[in-house]
Structure formats: structure tokens, C-alpha cells
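yo, DUF2007 domain-containing protein is done. seq:
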Amino acid sequence: MQRIYEPENLMEGELLRGMLASEGIEAHLHGGDLLGGVGELPVFGLLALSVENHQVQRARELITAYNAALPLPCEEPDSFAGVLVC
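structure:
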């Protein structure tokens, strides 16, 4: 098993774990239980995604594509300029 990515936060980690699972890659998110200790533990490097050795390359490709993705273009309503409306 190899550590392939350090998500910025627990939400990103769970999102990426789910994305990898949807592609048939079992990923493990390490460090989620340590977030309660922030203040006493270092802030960076607590979270990590790990996958089996034979899935490392594909998982890294998917995460690279995720990080390179851009939001879809759309027209913003005038009353919400600069605000993402879902």
C-alpha cells in the first residue's frame, strides 16, 4: 500500500476516496480521527490517501485530473454576481 495524496481537509479526502471507489479503486483515508487534536498536533500532513501498489498509477492519474478540472461555465444572475449558485 502506498500513500499517494494528502488532501487539504477531511471533506476533500472523503470526496476523493469516493471518486476512486467509483472507478474500482479501494482507497484508505488515514488520519481523519486525528483532526480533533489540531492545536496539539501539526496542522499539515495528518490526512493521507493510500491505495494498493498495483493501483497507484491509475489513482494518481484520476487525482491529477480532479485537480486540473475547471468549473463549468455558466451565466451568473446579476443579483448574485461573484457568488456560486448551485
